[in-house]
Write a structure and sequence with these properties.
Protein name: DUF6788 domain-containing protein
Helix content: 10-25%
Oligomer: single chain
Order of helices and strands: EHEEHEE
Pfam families: DUF6788
Radius of gyration: 14 Å
InterPro entries: DUF6788
Largest sheet: 5 strands, antiparallel
Organism: Dictyobacter arantiisoli
Amino acid sequence: MTTIPSDQHITYQLQYRKCGKASCSTCRNGQGHGPYWYAYWRVGSRLRSGYIGKVRPSQLSTAASVTTKELAEQPVAVAHSYAVSAASATTTTSSARR
């Protein structure tokens, strides 16, 4: 498992993932497995990511988190991002990637 740095700007995303199995009804008939939390940060010019799991990261405030029901109502291609600055512990919502 990837170690997530504590001294950098981290962006958190709640995402669904497809396993790729032809017989998987979860992926075939729905959004996929999840939602799962992922962390993203930069090392030089490279974007790195780390799997966190189903539980909301403790660095996120309750006000910034999105419920699973709210996420389920969003299109599959939209991922919710939450940025946490290691220097300032404030939480902001960044625009979703498309």
